[in-house]
Here is the input.
Amino acid sequence: MHVVDHLKGAPTEEKRNVLVESARLARGDIRGLSELSIKEFDAVIFPGGFGVAKNLCSWAVQGKDCSVNEQVKVVLQAFHDERKPIGLCCISPVLAAKVFPGCEVTVGNDKDKRSPDVAETAEAITQLGCKHICKNVNESHVDEKNKIVTTCAFMCKAPLHEIFDGIGVMIQDVLKLA
Here is the structure.
């Protein structure tokens, strides 16, 4: 979808390739999901951000009626089928809510008035037949049955060090399941 100039808070005419942008950010060996061999990995973690809601699914424009990118869906289902843990943070727990009906995820504390997007997203997750678990930014939720670990990260208005701590907890919980 569109590229946002975060300095101005507005879309630009610029076009980007998600794979090229991923390589720039990661500064590493990046390959497309179609090349992923599930057998080579013990777990998968999807970071969040608005790019997930625009490029890995259509949540940004369709909410709970969104579709999930087919390659993303295949990867999630393959890890789930192999009983390998899946970590999701920020907005990416909506991917699990779409792909795994009945799963448990968190996108934060839906009672916190500072983060109105959390309550709206939590309600949509519930409407999809999943259970939203209310968690603070420095916590994660582990759905033991589905081996899905989620944390809210930037869904919540919180200091950066608390977001960092929550992501760290999610990573540790994924590693415990691996």
Q: What stands out?
A: Residues 1-30 form one domain. Residues 140 and 169 are 6 Å apart (CA to CA).
